[in-house]
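Bench log. Compound arrived from synthesis this morning; before running ITC I wanted a structural hypothesis for how cytidine-5'-monophosphate sits in the protein. Inputs:
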Amino acid sequence: MNKSKKVLLIITGGIAAYKSLEIIRGLKANNIDVTCILTKSGSEFVTPLSIESLSENKVYTDLFNLTDEHEMGHIQLSRQADIILVAPATANIMSKIAYGNTDDLASTVLVATNKPIIVAPAMNVRMWLNNATQRNIQTLRNDGIKFVGPENGEMACGEYGEGRMSEPSEIIKYTNDFINSLDFKPLRDFSALVTSGPTKEMIDPVRFISNESSGKQGYTIAEKLSSLGAYTTLISGPTKLPNPNVDKVVHVSSADEMMLECDKALPVNIAICAAAVADYKVMKQSETKIKKNGSRLDITLEENPDILSRLSKRNDKRPDLVVGFAAETEKLEENSKIKLEKKGCDWILGNNVSNGQVIGKDTNEIHFISKSETENWKQMRKEEVAEKLSHKIVQHLKS
Ligand code: C5P
């Protein structure tokens, strides 16, 4: 099944590098073609000869000379594989990816690639827990890089803790499943719009009313739907996030603009309203900066359009499935059910935002509510929420 699939395996310098030989064998046993890059420090642990013998492909080392560049340029090397696997991945290579450093072949290829990257970290527990490493891990995760491991366990240096590279069998399975998922496009014939982030309602040219929202959940949902084949338009309020890998991203500021862009994106099969839209806008925006004059300032607000409600209640071009979010600080289930009814959407994902949970964080705890079912999803990463929701959407649209 994986006959034509290709993995570029980057072996960096950790004691776990010897396990990369087993990874090469395992991937090849799954009919995956493996080409390797061995970093300079990686070559202190395994030899190019053993890698070449097992992979049956040329090994590219940091001694990347003109002949190599002629045969297979570093750009081509970064693109010819379906995915790039870094195993073992040292703290050093993760730091280079996080900062976009390109001082050797492996890092150059990792920065130049347009393919998914999986890393299998391997390092001493203190290095893993180090603040700089943890910051880099976060950057990598935010950039969509996938992690397999590390595990807790005995280290080569005699210490015990998190940082041990996952077993080759685990890495092989993860890589194989990931490669197969690249062909899994059950939403190929569907289209989606996702709203995300806050909206900004200007009071004057420099002041505004807004909501606290990072946009993370909507971005990951848009990316997941797109990866499953749906033609996906993300309509985003102002966030600090880089554009996700989707078909179209439209940046907006106010709720009115968001509403307008949603209308333009119709018809779609799926609409996910994950944006934290400001409920009110300023009735009369001041064109100049409002000055203090020692007295009270009254600002009159009027209601913004409720995008979720409008999409749900449209007579024409109503999406087949409309999903909203309910951020609540109390009576989560009860209030979410009321919202489902009132807004006329098909599903509501309720989340508890009291005590600083959820907003700006990487995890979410969802109460899934439809007309016929209620499910409590355990606390999980926002990517996992996107995954779970997307699979529910696939089931729903296919049934
Ligand atoms: O009414 P409330 O803001 O709590 O509802 C939250 C849900 O409604 C979210 O899905 C949000 O994206 C959507 N919403 C909207 N337009 C608004 C307000 C909320 O689409 N003006």
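What the model suggests: The pocket of cytidine-5'-monophosphate is lined by residues 195, 255, 273-275, 277, 279, 304, 306-308, 324-326, 339 (CB under 6 Å). The chain has two domains: 6-182, 191-398.
ITC booked for Thursday regardless.
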